[in-house]
Design goal:
423 residues; single chain; 70% helix; globular; 4% strand; 4 strands; 13 helices; 4-stranded mixed beta sheet; mainly alpha
């Protein structure tokens, strides 16, 4: 045996690992750089006073509502983490107790995951119930308790089904490939996420809402014109019966390829918004399609999923590896904590894309006044905070604040206003 040759071979393998990580990190950074870019020009967004756009009564009512709703949200979040911590601590006796029922490592791990998910759901259910009461008190919902419970059961049923499949797949992969399971698991989870996103409009969303084509032919034609202006072919414009659940107005775009559609809540068509404001919100949603925000969001999902799955593998490997079903709570808690820690960055990306869709809407409609009216009415009817605290925006803000959006419209108006003669 030539010890010298073997030493050189081992050294090359040792150097190959950090070299590979450096290459992966470089690919991540370059990909993130291109995904980060948007078409919004450099703008001088004015520092606006909410009192110039909202009455004192509107601001006070929103403040009173948000003060409690934020407390309920934070309480629900704390309950989730408390249950996760408890079940990570008690994972071994829980797995031992379920082993007789599961009668197999994978089935036992799936049962442990389902118990954890149900425990988290039950812990947060009271916060959700109080939140429903609070929304009803402020007129944001008139949903009956029976309908709300039905929604909760459907949502948790979907979550349990997806979780069971993910845990069973992960445990089988970990047993087959050992500590390297994440190398195969991470890209497959990304593929599964893409497939779920494609199927969601056809499979999941109809479980909560009924959809029908937009009946307003004039608005439909105008949306198609706006789509042409933004370089988007409009296939489907649908209306969701959201009024059975909320009085807040909204619109969104979902799906990719054959499942792509623009969806209006029926609450946004109830007369509170002018035709020009509806055109503005449609132009915003089409802006998401025009700038490929859905595809870019899926790319960000891939960029974060791969290190996230690696982290789950690394943490559980320190305790023996995921073939052990008692480590399922630790793996789930690691994934949840990782998602929570990267959420501020994800929100920052979301705000950039939302701002780009706002800019696309302004350039397509050339109507900053209607954009401002839309944002004002959306904020008032949803009891939104026009200028929330910085920590709220950083941690949970997926959209620019209403004042930032109004500020962009004002900047657009200044940018496109004709310069008076002689100035």
């Amino acid at each position: 045996m030539n010890v010298g040759d073997d030493g050189h071979s081992h050294g090359r393998r040792t150097l190959a690992k950090p070299a590979g990580l450096i290459v992966l990190a470089a690919v991540w950074v370059v990909s993130g750089f291109f995904l980060w870019r948007t078409s919004v020009p450099r703008l001088s967004i004015p520092d606006l006073d909410p009192r110039d756009y909202f009455s004192a009564a509107e601001l006070a009512r929103a403040h009173d509502y948000r003060r409690v709703s934020r407390a309920l949200f934070l309480g629900s979040l704390a309950a989730q983490f408390a249950v996760l911590a408890l079940l990570v601590w008690k994972a071994r006796p829980l797995a031992d107790a379920l082993e007789g029922v599961g009668r197999g490592r994978i089935r036992t791990g799936v049962l442990v995951a389902l118990v954890l998910a149900l425990a988290v759901w039950l812990a947060t259910l009271p916060f959700g119930a109080v939140s429903l009461w609070w929304r009803r008190r402020y007129g944001l919902s008139h949903q009956a308790a029976a309908g709300w419970i039905r929604d909760q059961l459907v949502a948790v049923g979907i979550e349990l089904l997806l979780l069971a499949g993910a845990v069973a797949f992960t445990l089988a992969l970990a047993a087959w490939l050992g500590r390297s399971w994440w190398l195969v698991g991470a890209p497959l989870f990304v593929v599964a996420g893409v497939l779920y996103f494609i199927a969601q409009p056809l499979v999941v969303q109809p479980l909560f809402n009924t959809f029908h084509p937009l009946a307003d032919k004039q608005l439909t034609e105008k949306i198609k014109e706006l789509g042409h202006e933004e370089g988007v072919t409009v296939d489907k414009v649908l209306v969701a019966d959201a009024s059975k659940r909320t009085t807040a107005a909204n619109a969104y775009v979902s799906g990719i390829g054959p499942t792509k559609r623009v969806v209006f809540y029926d609450t946004i068509l109830d007369g509170r918004f002018s035709q020009a404001e509806l055109e503005s919100v449609a132009a915003h949603e089409l802006g998401h399609v025009a700038r490929s925000h859905i595809w870019k969001g899926l790319a960000w999902f891939a960029l974060f999923s791969i290190p996230g799955v690696f982290l789950v593998a690394w943490v559980t490997e320190r305790r023996g590896g995921l073939p052990d079903p008692a480590l399922v709570p630790l793996g789930i808690a690691t994934a949840v904590l990782f998602a929570f820690l990267v959420m501020p960055f994800g929100n920052l990306v979301s705000r950039r894309y939302e701002a780009e869709a706002d800019w696309m809407a302004l350039t397509a409609t050339h109507d900053p006044q209607s954009f401002i009216g839309l944002e004002r009415t959306l904020t008032v009817t949803a009891l939104g905070d026009p200028d929330p605290p910085a920590w709220v925006n950083v941690m949970f803000g997926t959209h620019p604040t209403p004042m930032k959006r109004i500020g962009m419209a004002e900047a657009f108006r200044t940018r496109t206003s004709p310069v008076p003669a002689g100035s």
